[in-house]
Amino acid sequence: MNTLNNIKQKRYVIVAGAGISMSQPSNLPSWWQYNKTIINVIKEQACELCPEASELIDAIDIENTLPVQCISDLIVSQGAGSSYFPLLELLNATSPNANHFALVELAKRGILKAVVTTNFDTLIENAFLQKAVPLLTIVQNEEYYELSQALTCKLFKIHGSVTDYDSLIDTVTQKAVGLSPAKRLVLSNIFLNSEIIFIGFSGADLDFDMEYIPISQALERGNNVTWILQPGSH
After folding, report:
1. Beta strands of 51-189 (E only): which ranges?
2. Residue 135 CA to chain centroid, in angstroms?
3. Looking at residues 60-81, what average pLDDT do you find?
4. How far is CA 116 from CA 37, 83, 183, in A?
5. Could you tell me the CA-to-CA distances from 33 to 14, 29, 192, 197, 204 in Å, in that order?
6. What is the pTM of this model?
7. Residue 192 has pLDDT above 60, yes or no
8. What stretches of 6-144 adopt beta strand conformation (E)?
9. N- to C-terminal Cα distance for the chain?
10. In angstroms, rounded to a whole number, what is the distance separating the alpha carbons of residues 181 and 179?
11. Which of 35, 51, 114, 204 has the least C-beta neighbours within 10 A?
């Protein structure tokens, strides 16, 4: 009986990456696929503008010469500037999948404290809206302190949202700075006394800093961390 009570009292924080939005009917690309698609489109347009150099352009293998993390930086620095960020709206969809509705079910049961996501899309919000389950979405820095105190299940969009271009974080230059102090403090507190589950998250952001997702204090307290991997992923 005590064991059952302990399970019911557990509160979870889920760290969700692009992988949760790849399944049908959402069908969004991974961040890696998205960046590679942009490069392919650029190469196609370059071939149309300069057909005599098409063989040379086709032979360019950016994937093996430039880390995919740097592609967005290259596009921004070589002329796109801030006009690049509205392109990220392509990483949105209107149909949540089973992963998003599973988050809703956990929130309905009162065991999901928060979702922390690097995703720009609005699929999690749409899933909660469709099931009429309350969700507090937190995007901008100034919202973190005040809104994080609410009892409602919270969605922390740490890289921003397609609904707010100014909030978007996608380039290596942006990520190398790390999360703002406000985000880090609030997230660190959210992770405390919670079971932490990573799902659909590649871990690429941890290449910038192993504490990019600040879970060290939770680990020091003995909190469990579960990382769910899809079959065939690595």
Report:
1. 112-117, 136-138, 154-157
2. 17
3. 57
4. 26, 26, 11
5. 23, 6, 34, 24, 14
6. 0.78
7. yes
8. 12-16, 112-117, 136-138
9. 39
10. 7
11. 51
